[in-house]
Amino acid sequence: KSAPSANGNCCTSSVRPRAQQSCVKLANVGLRQKGLGLASYPSVDLILALVLVFSKMNAKEGTKKETLLGLHTKREDDFGKWYSQVVTNGELIEYYDISGCYILRPHAYSMWETIQKFVDCEIKKMGVENTYFPCFVSQKALTAEKNHVEGFAAEVAWVTRSGNSELEEPIAVRPTSETVMYPIFAKWIHSHRDLPMKLNQWCNVVRWEFSNPTPFIRSREFLWQEGHTAYATKSEADVEVRQVLNLYERVYEELLCVPVIQGVKSEKEKFAGGLYTTTVEAFVPATGRGIQGATSHCLGQNFAKMFHIEFESELGEKKMPWQNSWGMTTRTIGVMIMVHGDNKGLVLPPRVAPIQVVVIPIPNQKLNEAERVSLKEGVGKMHAMLVDAGIRSKLDDRDNYTPGWKYNHWELKGVPLRCEYGPRDMQNGTCVLVRRDTGEKTPCNIVDLTAKAAAIMDQMSKEMLARATAERNANIATVLEWKDFTPALEAKKMVLAPWCEEPESEDDVKKKSKEESTEGSGAKTLCIPFEQPPLPEGTKCFITGKPAKSWTLFGRSY
Fold this sequence. Notes:
Layout: H1 17-32, H2 44-60, H3 79-89, E1 93-95, E2 102-104, H4 106-125, E3 129-130, E4 136-138, H5 139-142, H6 146-152, E5 157-162, E6 165-173, H7 178-188, E7 197-206, E8 221-231, H8 234-255, E9 261-264, E10 276-284, E11 289-300, H9 302-306, E12 311-312, E13 318-319, E14 322-329, H10 331-340, E15 357-361, H11 369-388, E16 393-395, H12 403-412, E17 417-421, H13 423-428, E18 430-435, E19 441-445, H14 449-474, E20 476-478, H15 485-490, E21 494-499, H16 503-516, E22 524-529, E23 550-557
Parallel strand pairs: 3-7, 11-23, 15-16, 15-17, 20-21
Antiparallel strand pairs: 1-2, 4-6, 5-6, 7-8, 8-14, 9-10, 9-22, 10-11, 11-14, 12-13, 17-18, 18-19, 21-23, 22-23
Helix pairs in contact: 1-2, 4-8
């Protein structure tokens, strides 16, 4: 409360005499080592000494010892801060010195590799081939399709200089690759025999202009796959659009245990320049916001017209192909974290977890050297059994950390199963398996370890998806009139409402919900779900009072 005097005596009455004397003594010792006296350097060292003394006194008085390991913000208190701590402390990302750009650490990139492997295998079954196109696009190509470039104009990053020289024409860094690839499609497609053409590339894209960057969710550079295909008929293109959307649903529900809703985007929300856009929409209960999971677009013949893509039909007629594009990004990882994470850290679904089981020995002071060696050999054998069975296992037999510290560390990183092995287990030929999501403990004979671990992880995946689905469904409010719309949003729910599908009314929804919101955030259409409840004849639109055409999902979104 007040500065120390020259002789080191604190002038405040709040310092206990014993602490005061200890502070002066510690401060003088520290300063003498530097060749200084307390009078010449009175403040900083004394404060440090105070901190040391009081921390020791508090420890003696029973104050709980704190560790820097783990999270310091609860999910329910500040979701944004919690999320930032989870992705950094969980060793998924490292912040970079360019805003909106992040380093994907091995723990995160491994999950993307698992998703990539799954999707790549499935699209190859569909006859899709991988390719790679340059990341740069000429100004002429980018601006060829007016609606398309307007949709991305604010997000395009331009290269204007090379060394000290100005470029004759600026070059764009791809925000997406339609305008990069389709001029080449025009060179490759001439006959009906050249169709269908099915290409995919795994790459990065850059979308520069946005606010509130969030790791995995909204970043200036991100990784994705983008499929680009061309067909002779619209019916063929339509089939593929839904086939790909089903694949994206499988990624979310089978790998990530996140439920999604399939649907079509409104005219205002569809892909710029496309005919129609389908989507899988997820929901984050903690924030009450929807989030676009992945999209599959039918581009129609618009891009073929702009880039002069034509083929000769079997009858010798000149025709334009029907084109699709579809993509899924590293946003998948962020959605998974937001849906499943808790106040201990990440909760990773087993199928995507880089480490599925961590094996931890539990020694104690009573063990002799031979028993310690036997304990280490035991966990080593269990780890080898799991690896041989195709389970991604990690052995943590470090001696410089306690078992409790290791539990917290691996819980923070979201490892689905922990395998504990102590002296009693060594005697009985058993171990204990602990689930990350529920904390449930299951005793297990070592001979049954691999089968038991696999069975628990399979059950865990099913239960994680079931819990997330139940929570999502409980947060969908059915609304028939405007008066109930904003209150449902304020309660952190998505809204299913009868809608006339007029673009102007969507603007009205966004404007009115923003004006009525306590947080100043409006709602928009998320999708028109493919699975439609019955819509009785004469049902009116909840915002205009005109005849409703569909049940539409509205909500705040990322």
